[in-house]
Amino acid sequence: MNQFLLSRRQRHLRVICFHNISLFKTNGNSLLMKKYGGLFVPCFFVLESIRGELLYVSEVQSDSLRKLCFQELPKLTGASTMIILKLVGRVPSEVLCEISFDKRSSLGDKWCILCTYTIDLNKLQPINEDAVLITGTNTPVLGLIDGSYTLLIENTKPIKGPVSLHKRNISQVKIKSSLAYSSLLKLNKLLEYSSQVHEEINDISKKIEQGFPLHKNQNHWYIKTVQKSIKSLQSETLQRKTKKTHMEMTQLENSDTINHSKTELSLISQDEPINDDYGSIYSRFVQIKDRLDQLRFKKLYQLVKIFHSTDLFNPDRGFVRFNRPSSISNIINVLNLKPLNIGILFRQADESARHREYINSQLGYYLLFLHLTATQIFKAPLPYKLMYYGSTSVIESQYPFYFTDSMIAKHQAKLIRAMHYFNADILQFKQVLENYCPT
To answer: Which Pfam families match (predicted)?
Structure first.
């Protein structure tokens, strides 16, 4: 079966266990570990996607320090192969008072994140929990549909069995194996059926795999394109050489160069050739660049007309200022991209859920407009990667570019960073437009 269908994903996750629950690291304070190492720690885990979206929060358990098994995990429907796993434990007030600088202050129990793991489900090591001993603290063991797995960096030790086992004497009675004819027929039918099912699975997987190319084949199209370009350039170069040789021979026959002496021919061959085609080549280059500029301006004008159906160019609340140009060539001078005002956007998003949805959609339109204009029309590189997903777009594959209903502190910090990155992209593209010199 193909590799894409065999990869592990979020929907394959069934059970999550944690081994050797501890509030302290292995190289921590030995006195604290000796004094409070035997306390039962109430724990729960938080499961997030790689984009920071909350997937699941488990119940609280405190049954054991050796192994906590959370089996109430619902069926996840995501197809991603990356997850973020956090273990949260309740630190007792005695421990907090012990490590606090102010010994007189009275502190209550607090929930703290004990460990955070960014897990690639396809980069785990299989493990048999009954045959190995896990030595690390707060070690996660993921129960997938095809077995149990843990992180590659975790150390495990095999459990030694008993030194000697009781062996009974082998019976001297010889038993002759027999098989009925009807059983052979049933076995034959089962083998035929299993082979047919295996062939059908392979055919279906090949059809599915055609829409999901693997990483090793993603440059196949580029390689073919480069090879075709090399062949066409070689054939064109050969044709030009043949044509040039033919023209030189024709000129040589029509002139009286043959009547010249060998000395004159040697003197003529020593003269440096003069490139008489320089002016014509430069003029053709100017014409081609002018056509390219006109095509870019035309595409930009068409893109602006497409986005006019949104409020992106609204004079009151839009993000882009655009006045109707006197000609298409003047469209760069009348296009003004405004940077985002973070404070105003946060105040507008707090007004109501309707305002928040509207701002998210406008931010997605703005990101798509900048991405198409910079990368597709002007071929200008941007410092930060823009990924358009409608009203839930992302910058640099990890920073959300949208507001949520409950703005937690972590999401808010990532959103502010995404807005700063987007403003940097706008500034970079505005410099490209200011320094752009059409013919």
So the answer is: VPS38 (PF17649)
